[in-house]
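Please produce the structure of this protein holding NAP.
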Amino acid sequence: MKILIFGHRGMLGSELMMRLQANHEVAGQDIPEIDITSYDACRQAILSIKPDLAVNATAFTDVDACETRREECFAVNALGVGHLALICRDMGIKLVHFSTDYVFNGRRKTPYAEEDFCDPLNVYGLSKLEGEKRLQEAGCDHLLIRTAWLYGKNGKNFVRAILARAETDPVLDVVDDQRGCPTYSADLSDAVGFLIEGGHSGIYHVTNSGQCTWYEFACRILKSSGILDVEVRPTTSDKLARPACRSPYSVLNCEKYFRDTGHAMRHWTEALNDYLSVIRKEVDLKS
Ligand SMILES: NC(=O)c1ccc[n+]([C@@H]2O[C@H](COP(=O)([O-])OP(=O)(O)OC[C@H]3O[C@@H](n4cnc5c(N)ncnc54)[C@H](OP(=O)(O)O)[C@@H]3O)[C@@H](O)[C@H]2O)c1
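Below is the modeled complex.
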């Protein structure tokens, strides 16, 4: 297949480029060569590349900044998605798009399934839900993949942030009242490949398996990295008082993905170990 990835320099987009290039002809478009909030720019890109499938890995992902930069956030996460969906519908191209656990309010205590009621708690979640609606209403063939707590080789992420803070701070306060599932973007990219190659459409939840709080995640990152002289202290979201409200429970039920593809997502601790060895190799190469 000829695949066009929008946002191919982002954390997930760059991983998708690598994964999909193994079996397909892949092109990428990102800022500055394209701004997906421009309908004409999107149409021009799709017309000139003529892909069989388009993947939208762009997003305005700074969850706290979304609270004050609402217009920009909705332009990318909702309006831009609508543009791509309408163009793909008109040209008969399937569109793969990503959404988030933050479309749910987190009041449940069991993993969210694809058809569960959406009720976002913050502007980022609202904008992503609006993007989902525009994608579905456009009527193009689509694959909508909700994922959560991503980390990967490129871009800012929680694992790198904890390792960086551990270099200077002997004590780290990390919230223990938000539960989810950390997901390695390399594993998610493999799953996207299986879904695309299997011809699947509709909504899928895809994360690594298992669950933890950010506090438990931070403890595991340090322990698995052999950093034993930094203390991690559990704290609460109230004490941290970040601009955007976060869901207390955002574990996604990924059974549909397993049922339809036959591929199980590995446990988050196993994926984390792989990622940490990738980071160690980077450090070795630099020194
Ligand atoms: N990160 C997570 O924890 C997480 C969790 C759940 C779901 N997701 C979803 O997963 C997808 C990928 O996220 P990610 O973490 O890989 O995001 P990311 O690293 O922030 O990458 C997004 C890419 O989109 C680009 N972009 C932003 N605005 C654009 C525009 N107007 N036109 C064209 N490109 C634009 C960004 O460029 P700049 O860097 O120059 O802005 C960046 O290269 C998103 O749909 C996100 O909502 C992410």
